Amino acid sequence: MAQIINYFETYFDWFYIPRVTITDLIEIIIIAIMIYYIMDWFKKTRAWTLVKGILILLFFTGLAMVFQFNTILWIFRNTISVGVIAVIIIFQPEFRRALEQLGRKRFFSSFLSSEEDSRSKKVDKRVLTEITKAVFSMAEVKTGALIVLEQEVRLGDYERTGIAIDAEVTSQLLINIFEHNTPLHDGAVLIRDNRIVSATCYLPLSDNLDISKALGTRHRAAIGVSEVSDSITIIVSEETGAVSIAYNGEIIRNLSQDKFISQVEELKKQEKGVRKVKWWKGFGKHEK
Questions:
Q1: Can you list the positions of beta strands (E) in 143-206?
Q2: CA dihedral 205, 209, 214, 220 (to 10 degrees)
Q3: pLDDT digits over 181-192, tens only?
Q4: How far is CA 271 from CA 97, 117, 188, 193, 233, in A?
Q5: Burial (CB count within 10 angstroms: exposed 0-12, middle 13-18, buried 19+), residue 133
Q6: CA 205, CA 191: separation in Å to the nearest integer?
Q7: Cβ atoms of 246 and 224 closer than 8 Å
Q8: Sorting pLDDT into bands at 50, 70 and 90, what band is 146?
Q9: Model pTM above 0.85
Q10: Residue-wise pLDDT tens digits, 271-281
Q11: CA count, 13 A, side-chain hemisphere, 90
């Protein structure tokens, strides 16, 4: 028996099982919660695109290390410090808001409550029907409209530029908002979780020079917000009554009612992870 014990002590001295105490478990839970909320914050802001870009850079840096591409590694080492400073400067508003929200965040409510999510999924088709009725009713009389459907990336910056509403989505309400000479008709309506959360929102204008000169400010604003988020933006032209959709920096114009419904449903499927590249075939860079 002594020889067996001596054998295990000699050849398995590297094998060590650490003692896990209550303090260690608490630390693990705290770190896991912090990582969860950091990743959740990144995913719901424009910084998520930056994270994906950084992961791609790290991947290529790993390949450079494996194949010993010394020049690429030298460039990466000498630019990483500048890149970190640039990220802090560019995303300073997001970092500041994250710290401001830290004190008023109810950490455990998001884990325990899922009622709102289930409610949102149930009324999704109804909301699309109401939006479709409103959009094509306004198109018939050439009433300009701009409706933003928020997806994963939160649009809190643009929500704060408008007037809070927090109302159920109905075609009558949307038509009334965009009616001429009403206080709320100018600007965009923001829809989140199948509710109208804000109206008269100001959106960023796209500065892409390839956009057709025939498109006005409303269309450029729709393309602009789609460039900085994953939102689906619906446009009704005040001049022609044409219905268009902007997504991912692209715009699809002159949609019929059936085509409009199918395009919105297709984009929402893409947001759930069903990527169908063939949907984009046949479209130009910025318009149909």
A1: 145-149, 163-168, 188-192, 195-201
A2: -10
A3: 888 888 899 999
A4: 25, 16, 22, 14, 14
A5: middle
A6: 19
A7: no
A8: very high
A9: no
A10: 555 444 433 33
A11: 11
